[in-house]
Amino acid sequence: MPSLFEPAPFALWQLLALACLVVCAAGASVYLLRKHLADDDGLPDAVFWDGFAGLAIVAPAVILPALVAPWSGLLLGVIAAAAAASSYLWTPRIFSWQAERRSTRDTAASNQAAAARHRSALARWQRYEMDPAHAIDYPAMSDPRQPETAALIRAMKAAEQLRTGTDAGYARAVERLEEALAEAERAAGVGRDAPTRDAGFPAADPALG
């Protein structure tokens, strides 16, 4: 019967390779198990296969060396247990970091789309400031005394304050700007029958043409 302290019949590099194997297998198995518990609401199939896959790798890597050198099996077993415990403790932090990265990417993508809508809304509003025809036809769009126009100006300022940052509220601020712009246009009569600039002048008699 082999002694507990009997020298191992394999090289040190083999022992190190087995140690790396059990660390990776035990850590990855616990990580995947907790991930599936969180993402899939603990689906039995996923949890079972996570545990089975880990045991299928760790058990032979620990038991087979223990048959020829018990101390090596004990050492590998302790290493596997430590790796599993470390993975169990650290996976919530990893999940939190991953969720934060996803949220940052989603916010950046949302803000990029919101920036294009923001530019479009500003260009739409600037017609009433820069185009003389629009300024004459819809003077209320440039009059801050109008409640809807005042609300539009406030919405523009709020969106502009969030424009250069990574705030998740930027997209919502742009949405409020679009809503305020549509409401101001509705109150100013935009979209109704276009004003007739030559009102008051008699229409030309077709017979005279």
Describe it for me?
With 209 residues, this protein is an all-alpha fold. It folds into two domains: 12-102; 108-187, no CATH class. The chain is built from six helices and no strands. The longest helix is centred in the middle third of the chain and has 61 residues, at 70-130. It is rod-shaped and about 95 Å long. The relative contact order is 0.09. The model is unreliable at 193-209 (pLDDT under 50).
Mean pLDDT: 81
Query: What's the structural domain tally?
Result: 2
Q: What's the β-strand tally?
A: 0
The share of residues in helices is over 70%
Shape: rod-shaped
> If you compute it from the alpha carbons, what radius of gyration comes out, rounded to the nearest whole angstrom?
35 Å
Give the oligomeric state of the chains in this entry, treating copies of one chain as homo and distinct chains as hetero: single chain
Query: Count of helical segments?
Result: 6
What is the N-to-C succession of helices and strands? HHHHHH
Q: Span between N and C termini?
A: 123 Å
Summing up helix and strand content along with how strands pair, one would put the structural category as: mainly alpha
Percent in strands:
under 5%
Give a topology summary:
Elements: H1 12-39, H2 44-68, H3 70-130, H4 132-137, H5 147-161, H6 170-188
Defining traits:
209 residues, mainly alpha, 2 domains, 0% strand
Summarize the structure.
By secondary structure, this protein is mainly α. 74% of the residues lie in helices and 0% in strands.
